[in-house]
TrEMBL record:
One of its GO terms (cellular component) is matrix side of mitochondrial inner membrane. GO terms for molecular function: oxidoreductase activity; S-adenosylmethionine-dependent methyltransferase activity. Residues 36-57 are annotated as: Disordered. Its main location: mitochondrion. Pfam families: Methyltransf_11. The gene is NDUFAF5. The lineage of its organism: Eukaryota, Metazoa, Chordata, Craniata, Vertebrata. Residues 108-199 form the Methyltransferase type domain. Keywords: Methyltransferase, Mitochondrion, Oxidoreductase, Transferase, Transit peptide. This is Arginine-hydroxylase NDUFAF5, mitochondrial. GO terms for biological process: methylation; mitochondrial respiratory chain complex I assembly. Belongs to the methyltransferase superfamily.
């Protein structure tokens, strides 16, 4: 069945540009616990020092568990089999970088994973790229890129870089697991140089609504209540406000949806685990009863199934672009400086004629 799932997912996917050639790489460890390899092994069994150890309104996610999930996904026999969504969004982020007609000497990829953005960029656009992720196993298995890269193991919630360092910061499908998103945006703004740009993508609130509804209905039927199995997401109406408060200007926020067809609910959950996207919210329910899972699979098929027997999974993506202020940037005209009223737009032809005379 897993092979059938991959066949369904592979059909109809657009071809993306892939980087070629060989890059040079280095790796710095700024997040892992002390003690070398022994410390890294211990991290798999216990949270690192300083990590959040309890739930709360301000810390909805277990960051240590998320690191463990991503590390596990990266060391599977064929991790690329579940990378299709990250590769697609990484390519779309790269397209937005190409839309800016300049060369970026130094860029940062925040939550880079195995390098899903870097493979689509060119050295004519980005001269050097720093890749940051909490999962050291993902950084050890980065895909090849023609851009020189350096890998840094660090937490996206606390960036270990000086102010005004990067010309470009990109992030793809990582920030939705950050506990303090306003702080993360402020830190991104801080490490950007003046006139630098941030281009990011994160999952939106309608992501996996089919899975969420099926699991909730099945639990209500079989267990008399339900608990969250899909993590909470930020509303698109909040993103612009958060970016503005962090200091960004000339903002652009837009949404898109990617729908992937699977043989059934179990394949959806299998691939989410392979992506490192399993739920890590503190209030998650650790186990699901077998009868509940079977009921959820039947509900999923009945409510959302396609005519060919497959089921869709919807991923809503928020894309955001924000710039750090610089004197050279274009600014809106002062209020009241207009010479033509909106009420005169219907007479625009006449106004243009008088101007020519």
């Amino acid at each position: 069945m897993a092979a059938a799932a991959r066949a369904l997912r592979g059909s109809g996917r657009p071809a993306l540009r892939a980087g070629c050639g060989c890059g040079w790489g280095g790796r710095r460890r700024l997040w892992a616990p002390p003690g070398g390899s022994a410390g890294a092994a211990a991290a798999a069994a216990s949270p690192p020092a300083g990590s959040s150890s309890g739930s709360g309104a301000l810390s909805p996610f277990d960051r240590w568990l998320k690191r463990k999930q991503k590390n596990w996904a990266a060391v599977q026999a064929e991790p690329a089999k579940c990378d299709y969504l990250r590769e697609e969004v990484g390519g779309r982020i790269a397209d937005r970088v190409f839309d800016i007609t300049r060369t970026f000497p130094l860029a940062l990829d925040l939550g880079s994973g195995r390098g899903y953005i870097a493979r689509h960029l060119t050295k004519e656009t980005v001269e050097k790229l720093i890749q940051v992720d909490i999962a050291e196993n993902a950084l050890k298995k980065t895909v090849q890129s023609e851009i020189p890269t350096v890998s840094v193991v660090a937490d996206e919630e606390c960036l270990p870089f000086k102010e005004d360092t990067f010309d470009l910061v990109v992030s793809s499908l990582s920030l939705h697991w950050v506990n303090d998103l306003p702080r993360a945006f402020r830190e991104i703004h801080q490490v950007l140089k003046p006139d630098g740009v941030f281009i990011g993508a994160m999952f939106g609130g309608d992501t996996l609504y089919e899975l969420r509804c099926s699991l909730q209905l099945a639990e209500l039927e079989r267990e008399g209540g339900f608990s969250p199995h899909v993590s909470p997401f930020t509303a698109v109406s909040d993103l612009g406000h958060l970016l503005s408060r962090a200091g960004f200007n000339t903002l652009t926020v837009d949404t898109d949806e990617i729908q992937v067809n699977y043989p059934g609910l179990f394949e959806v959950m299998e691939d989410l685990q392979g992506m490192g996207e399993s739920n890590c919210a503190w209030n998650r329910k650790p186990l699901l009863h077998r009868e509940t899972m079977l009921a959820a699979a039947a509900i999923y098929q009945e409510m959302y199934g396609n005519s060919d027997g497959s089921v869709p999974a919807t991923f809503q993506i928020y894309y955001m672009i924000g710039w750090k202020f610089h004197e050279s940037q274009a600014r809106p005209a002062q209020r009241g400086s207009a010479t033509v009223s909106f009420g005169d737009l219907a007479k625009i032809d006449g106004l243009l004629s008088r101007g020519k005379k």
